Amino acid sequence: MLAELHCHTTYSRGSKIVFEGLNTPKEMILRAKKIGLDALAITDHNVVVNENKVYAKKNGIFLITGEEISTSEGHLIALGIEETIKPYLSFEETLDKIHEQGGIAIAPHPFDVQKKGLGKNIENLRKCDAIEVFNALNIERISNWKAERFAEKNKLSAVAGSDAHSISMLGRAITEIKAEQNLDSILKAIKDGRVRRCCSYTPIKNIVDWSVERLQLSYIDVVEYIDENYALPKKYASKKMLKLVKRHPGKIDYLFRLFGYIGLGVAIPLSAIRNLRY
């Protein structure tokens, strides 16, 4: 079966920019159906969303409930759990709570540039049930390369995830699972490594559009954050730049995409410095 193991909906919320996911769980399920997936794991940040199983089944999608948990040491995906595991516990405590619910633990983007993964502690990575070795948002590529090498060296199951925050991002990185369409079979197959990856990177355009639309939806909250945390002249410049998102979609998008490519140009050497020296 073809499965998306890492995606976010409107239930995922951030701190500085409130909106993380742009689409509802039902919209993600319909998109999964449209692109030919068999299973979908919704892994919202620090919350389990499990009320859409019947809707998913009616549309031919096996819904895997999950959560991307912010542990005190980095992000950890739980698949096959039914109750939310609160964030900022230690890695060990979080891992125990996942297994207590009969779920499995996957380390997402362990060596990402933003240092949100678990790559800072190699021993923690070795204790995970699987490693996400391809994250479609890691477009600098080096962090994915290192994750794959790590999984091979430590004989860990290696999966892929789109880390989709909108329907346009869904299905970029798919994991083919050799399992029956039931939760126990799926989780066991992932843990045993009976998987194959079908991967591509999310285009810059999709990433930029998502970033801008997040800012549009979170506009008032971002302005309040700037007012409370920035001093002049940074406050003035930030508000001026923020106003540009109101002109999306339009010709301003060429400028946003330029920013995206500049960001990629910075991320590649930064990732190389962090990941190729070990």
List keywords for this structure.
278 residues, alpha/beta, 2 domains, nine-stranded mixed sheet
Major β-sheet strand ordering: 7-6-5-4-3-2-1-8-9
The gross shape turns out to be globular
Helices and strands: which structural class?
alpha/beta
N to C succession of SSEs: EHEHEEHEHEHEEHEHHHH
By CATH, the topology of the largest domain is TIM Barrel
* Count of domains: 2
Tally of DSSP helical segments = 10
* Helix content range: 40-55%
CATH superfamily of the largest domain: Metal-dependent hydrolases
Q: In the CATH classification, which architecture of the largest domain applies? A: Alpha-Beta Barrel
Low-pLDDT segments, ≥5 res = none
Radius of gyration: 19 Å
The CATH class of the largest domain is: Alpha Beta
Could you characterize what this model shows?
This protein is of the alpha/beta class. It has 2 domains: 2-203, Alpha-Beta Barrel (TIM Barrel); 205-275, no CATH class. Helix content is 41%, strand content 17%. It has a 9-stranded mixed beta sheet with strand order 7-6-5-4-3-2-1-8-9, sandwiched between helices. A hairpin with a 2-residue loop joins strand 3 and strand 4. Helix 7 (204-217) packs across helix 10 and helix 8 packs antiparallel against helix 9 (234-243). The longest helix is centred in the last third of the chain and has 24 residues, at 252-275. The radius of gyration is 19 Å and the shape is globular.
